[in-house]
Specification:
Number of strands: 9
Helix content: under 10%
Largest sheet: 7 strands, antiparallel
Number of domains: 1
Shape: globular
Low-confidence stretches: 3-18
Distance between the termini: 17 Å
CATH topology: Umud Fragment, subunit A
Strand content: 35-45%
Order of helices and strands: HEEHEEEEEEE
Number of helices: 2
Radius of gyration: 20 Å
CATH superfamily: Umud Fragment, subunit A
CATH class: Mainly Beta
Amino acid sequence: MTHYEYLNLIYKDGVWGKQVACGLFGISEDHFESYQSLDERFIKNKASTFFFEATGYSMEPMIFERDILIVDRAMTPVSGQIVVASVNGSFVCKTYIKKKDQVILRSENRKVQDLMITKEMEMHLFGVVIGIYRKFPVFD
């Protein structure tokens, strides 16, 4: 079934046939903000904030291909946070795991192996992922 066929099933005679709640109940218009700056919300330090476009599938289901990662270089990574790192000259986005003297860059997709950092590898932590921008597909 195509997207358009599905829409035709739930939209008949100018009326939607299904409803879904996506927010809080009983919110009135006086609780709406007229404008919210994404800069103010996500960027604490402009000089240390960078944007990367995600590629690949190793961080799914959390991060998808073409997501824009908001990365703060000023933050010191803590084990369990998602980071952008340079490994042997290539940038990767992984979950940073620190266990004693061992560093693991973990993929969220369980089909992709974790990257165990060895002494022979050159790794530099670029920054901590503090947000994700995802553009949803729009159907014409």
